[in-house]
Design a protein that fits this description.
By secondary structure, the protein is of the alpha/beta class. The chain has 8 helices and 6 strands, in the order βαβααβααβααβαβ.
Length: 213
């Protein structure tokens, strides 16, 4: 089992790394509630992947309002009685905003964000999943989601690099950086058990888990 003090776990990482699948598996394993992003509910996302310059602001604002509503649900839960596993960290919104928005759009988005002021409780643990660009590209192609069909490799690479820079300086919550090149905790029970064991052994606020080939 996971340590009992981990009431709120966030699984994060770039598109295709497996964060949603792992969040679901951890929630099932612990009996926790699962709080997931809903990309299919964003009416601008598919258009953004086809024409990012034109639809970046609409996509970003739509996600912001969606996450704000979900975080309201999280706040209504008893943090000492309810375990929650989610696949998004509100703090990383700035990552997408800076990557996709023009300067004037970024200023407007920041104003909207500041006015909305969505409260984001600090997680007890953030699990940041990493993978090489080729691996991410293969995983995105394998799941054959029509919405993701237009994702450009250059965007995926820029996104992965942005995640690396973001979590390099992240210190708001305990962080476990997990390299998934040779670890598949979603489809392999043994790897999932290894990850759960590694989580249980965490003693510092920032640790790495990299399974050798």
């Amino acid at each position: 089992m996971l340590p009992p003090h981990l009431h709120h776990i966030v699984v994060e990482g770039p598109i295709g790394v497996g964060k949603t699948s792992l969040a679901r598996r951890l929630a099932s394993f612990t009996g926790a509630n699962v709080l997931l992003e809903k990309p299919d509910a964003n009416p601008f996302l598919e258009r953004f992947y086809r024409d990012s310059a034109r639809y970046a602001l609409q996509t970003q604002i739509s996600f912001l309002f969606q996450r704000a509503r979900q975080l309201e649900e999280l706040q209504q839960m008893d943090p000492f009685r309810t375990q929650v596993v989610s696949d998004f960290l509100l703090d990383k919104d700035v990552l997408f905003a800076r990557l996709t928005l023009a300067d004037d759009e970024l200023k407007l988005y920041q104003q909207i964000h500041a006015h909305l002021k969505p409260a984001s409780p600090t997680p007890d643990l953030v699990i940041y999943l990493q993978a090489e660009l080729q691996t991410l590209t293969e995983r995105v192609a394998r799941r054959a989601n029509p919405v993701e069909a237009s994702i450009a490799p250059a965007y995926l690479e820029a996104l992965a690099d942005s995640y690396t820079r973001f979590f390099h300086g992240y210190d708001a919550a305990p962080l476990l950086v997990v390299n998934t090149e040779h670890l598949n905790p979603i489809d392999r029970d043994a790897d999932f058990e290894l990850l759960v064991s590694r989580i249980g052994k965490m003693r510092g606020r920032r640790e790495h888990f990299n399974l050798a080939a």
